[in-house]
Every structure is written in C-alpha cells, then in structure tokens.
Amino acid sequence: LDRWFNVSFEQNEPPVITQPFPFFGHLWGMIRHGNLYYSRVSKRTPFPIYSLRVPRSKIYVVKSPHLAALVDRHAKHISFGPYAVEFVRRFLEPSKHAMHELSQNMKEDGMWGLRPETIKTMHEAMSPGEGLTATTRSLTKHLYSHLDTIESMSESRQMKLFDWLRHMMTQATTDAVYGAEHNPFHDLEVESGFWDIKDEFVWMGLNMYPHILAPKAYRGRQRLFKAFKQYYANKGYETASQLIRNRWNMNQKYEISEQDIAHFDMSICFALMVNSVPTAFWSIVYLYSRPQLLEKIREELMRFVKPSSEEREHTIDIADVVGNCPELESFVNETLRVLSFNASGRIVLEDTMIDGYLLKKDSVVFTPSGDLHADTSIWGETASSFDAERFIPGVGSGAKAPASSFRAFGGGASLCPGRFLFMNEITIILTIVMLKYDIIPLVSEWKEVQGRAHITASVLTPTEDIDVEVKQRVGWEDVEFNFLWRGEAIGEGMKNLEKKRADSVMGDDEEL
Ligand code: HEM
C-alpha cells in the first residue's frame, strides 16, 4: 500500500496521508506492521507531522524532534493518561468503579486521582533510593541463582538463547517484584500463558470475540487473572517489593477491589518484562557477535574486579558498575536506540495549536521513536548504523542529543518509571554473563535475526531464536567470581561468605 500514498490538506490540521482503501488501509498496515508502520509511512512523507484516518479515530504522527519536544511540553492537553486508561478498558476487564476512578483528573491538575497518584508512588518506589536498592538486591540474587543453574548443566550447555533468557528473567524479575513466597509465575502455565497474551495482543485489543480471535491470549489472560486473585487472597503483597506494596496501598485508598487489582497486574507484568527480555537478547547477540567490542567492555568491567589474595577468587560489586562504565552504558543505550519502535501514544484533550498545526480534541497523537532515532539532524550521517560508542560523552552524537529525541523510555510527563530498574537488571545480567561465560552459536556464525514490532512493547522482538552453547570463559575457567550488590554478597559471593563465617565459627569453637 505504501506505494500509493497520497496527500490531502485540511485547514490548519497536519496534512492527511491517504491510500487507496479509505480508513481500513492504514488500520491494516498498523495491524500488520505494528509500530513499524509509522516509520514506513514517514519515509514517504516530507512533513514534520501528518494525519492518518482510521475508523472512529484521527491519528497525528509527529516526525520532527522539534514538534516532539513541543508535544512533551503540552502534557496537560496532549495527555498520556487517557491513552493508558483506554489500555485498561480494552485489555484488563475493569469494573465500572475502577474505570470511574481511573478516569478522574485526566489533565493532572494537582496530585489527586487514582492514576496520577499510583504513578507517583511507582516513581517513588523505582527511583534511586531504598526501594530500588532492595528490589535490585533481591533481583540480583534471583538472577544469579538462575544463571548459576548453567554450572549444573551437563557437559554440553546448549540452549535457545531467547527462550532461556525469557524464562530466567520472568522468574527472577517476578520473584524480586512480587516476592518469591507467593509469586504466581512459579506456575509455569501462568508464565507461558502470560507470553501467549503478548503474541496475540493485537487481536485481543480489537475487543471483539477475543476467545475466537485470540484464543491463546484469552486463555493466558484468564489464567493470569486467576493466579493474581489468589496472590492477593494470600496477601502476597506483604512479602512483595515496595512497588507492589505502594500500589496495593493506593488501590486501597480508592477502594479498588482485589479482583481489579489482580487485573491491573497484567499491565505491570508487561512493563516489567516485554522490553527487558528482548533487550537482553539483542545485547548478548550484539556483544558476542562483535569480539572486539566484547573484549573492550570486558576490560572496562575488569576495572571493578578485585582479585583476592588467593588468586582464584575475584570480587565485583555490580552496583559500582552502574553509571561508571561509559562503554557498557553507551552500548546498552545504542541497542535501545536502534531497536526501539514505541509509538508514545497521547490523546488530545482540548484543541491545541503546536507550531501552527491544529490538533483536534479526541484525536490520537503518536511520536514514534523509530522516526526520531533515525533522524540524521540529531544522530548524524551514521544514524542508520549501530555505533556502540555513540553515547559516550565527548565521543558520539548520542551524548549531545536532546532528551526528547531519545525515546526508548518515552518522554515528557510519562517518562518510564522503570528505567532505573531496567538499567540495573541489564547491567547485572551482562556483567555476570560477560565475566563468566563465552556464548557461541551452534551454527558457525551468528545469524542475522529480524525484529518484529509489538503495540505493547518499545523494543522489537526477535522473529526467531538462536541455538547457542554456553562455555566457561576461555582463560578464566579456574576463577571464582564473588558478585555483590552494594556490599551485600550474592551467589558465589554469598556461598563463600557463608563458608568463611562457618570456618571462623569453627575456629572460635576450637579456641574455646
Ligand atoms: C527496557 C525496559 C523498558 C522500556 C524500553 C520501557 C519503555 C517505556 C515506554 C516507551 C513508556 C511510554 C512512555 C511514553 O509514552 O511517554 C513506558 C512507560 C511506562 N513504563 Fe516502562 N519501559 C521499560 C521498563 C519498565 C519497567 C521495568 C517498569 C516497571 C514496572 C516500567 C513501567 C512503566 C510504566 C508504569 C509506564 C507508564 C508511565 C506513566 O503512565 O506515566 N517500565 N515505558
């Protein structure tokens, strides 16, 4: 269809991009290509902003960095709130009371109302501070114990990379966030049901006969709802992270039922995992398929590794790595830049003029990250290629890019509150994996894998998995790593520490 795009102009409003099948043409493109559709249209239009007409909705797509920054600045009138509430209505089967409470104070005039207050408490729980430290420490322990199962695998440690990461990160993240005591994801049918929802999400979102159009997703959602209802009946929140306790308390304040809270958790699980898992996959593929880059980042990590007097033992506090490894951080940001295709959806609450364009009330505004991340006026002539050093201060174009143009985590008032937890998580995984293991594809070369866009996710999902073998890192087979998070030992570190304590107790006994 993209070959037959045409343009029509309406007074003041952004130009309308038409195609031969009125209304349904664009809708079909969106269903077929997900968020990648906007990039396809944008490539064929010279305008900084344009309109798409679909049944019952008018969509404006913002392409220019300047207009993206303006949309962010008009957050009260071009708002993320109603977009998020529409997600709840379509996917989470909320009660009337829950919908009523969620729909209050859409313009966020003052800090009141279920949605603004919940987001505020989420930011509090997930910004650097006690809550984030406690959750990350728990996450590190759970990730390590899953990674450690590699050690007990048989001689040939072969696995499907994406499947392996997905299972490990699902279990470890939900243990850390929901508490391992009552984590619903320990039931593997809940885990597989959850990922089925993602696979058939678009069809479920049409909200017409979901049990027929999206049967696997429908069953997965029912299973997830039921499991979370049981979780709250068991008072699972009492042993959960601050994030879940804060959310529970806020929902109590607004008299939201346990059933509604259980349904809301589907969105939290999406936020926790749908971007982090593919980012971990792409990061490992990009690193291990670029041996020089891998060695460079390993060298950077080695600055934080302290060998003990017994040569075999090495200790690293992963919390020191976060924010202090420009090569690693730049690499992760660049991975996000090239693979983020979120739409940053907003709803126009009042007719609003931005830069001479009229945006009409009730329309949808998308600011696709794919377009901004490919803009040569921001990222230079190399915008379309992967440059691991792009975000190193003083080296690449990324360090100077305006915040409103790097949109992997969205932008403006609705900037993702989970970005710090994510950065910690990816640093933990990559640090442990890079220091301890070599990862080799079973076929001789790393194959080129394509990405698929999802309406719910920012980061593309790989269209196929890669069979790999995980081996002890060559030259480091005899080294034992102790991993810490803010001085507290985990994994090997924990075992060694416990052993040392036991030895010293024995020594004391002997003295006695
Ligand atoms: C790679 C990891 C992640 C990526 C790429 C990501 C990306 C995003 C994006 C693109 C948005 C939309 C913001 C906008 O349109 O302006 C968003 C919002 C959000 N994210 Fe994340 N996210 C990640 C991890 C997380 C995690 C771990 C959580 C934890 C629960 C989380 C919670 C949220 C929430 C609650 C919002 C809505 C914010 C609001 O309503 O103001 N995200 N995220």
TrEMBL record:
Its cofactor is heme. Gene3D superfamilies: Cytochrome P450. The keyword Ubl conjugation does not apply. Keywords: Heme, Iron, Metal-binding, Signal. One of its GO terms (molecular function) is heme binding. Pfam families: p450. Heme binds at C416. Belongs to the cytochrome P450 family. This is Cytochrome P450. It comes from Lentithecium fluviatile CBS 122367.
